[in-house]
Amino acid sequence: MALRVTKISVRNYKRIENVDIEIDVFRRREDEREYEVNKLLLFGPNGGGKSSLIAALSVLLSYLDESGKYYTVFGDLIGLPHSLIRQGAKRAEIEAAINDKRYKAVIDREGGTEVYEIGEAGEIKLSRGVLTFSIAILQPCSLYSSVRQPYQGEEIGKLELCPPGIRVRDPDLAEWIKRHKFLLGVEDFYGDRVKIDNYWVEVDKLAFGQIRTLGLLHATYGPPDVVIIEPFETGLHYDLAVRILDFLTELPSFIILETHVALLVKAALRRGWTVYYVSEGEFTRVRKPEELRGIARAEANAYVYA
Q: Matching InterPro entries, A to Z (predicted)?
């Protein structure tokens, strides 16, 4: 079952000093189907704090993972989490409401980390993980997935996109990609080749946007309980990005998209996503596309007077 994440709070971690955000669970009804939309879109300039929030949630999930595997966006998050405490602070706190329960990780600068479940009786210290979930993390040139199977000596769960190292041996994964080949803009898919205009072409000859989309189809195979994509717009034209947004909206996964493109905000809002503008460590909830006008003016002025 996909994780349902409805609140994230971060204190003194990386770029963030003090942030509380809420994430809606929006019910959509389409074609006589009803499904939940628990999705988060973070957009804003580089260095604003988007990746800091993603990293913080990844650390908390890593400690809560019952299997003992550490799923992180960056390799050093678990190994040295105390090194990422905000400068001048003695400790960082990361809290989230997950599946109607609250959990918190407290990271001390001296290197100790403690994890708690928060209930009506107060905070209960956890000695082991309590959640079972799968996760996929897609970055511009790489993919980590706890669902995807390895092949030909490849490290479990990892896939390189730059240069592309995509070879599909799992018939179920191949069928998943073929079912959504319209996102790739190809006629067919098999192993490490795609069919375009009646010709079979090796995957590494595709445009980067198509390779990125193929990586995204790998990332969503399963589908995982949690999907993290940063930055979302890499290699994607706006029209393709919106089609992919439609595809992601219907997945049962909890999804975080990190983007620098405000054009996607209107599309995300119309589909029930929770949207935050992130700049200089501050998170501002965006509920209507009209609210982007002030943000656009501020960014335009910053560019003009830079």
A: Bact_Antivir_Def_Nuclease, P-loop_NTPase
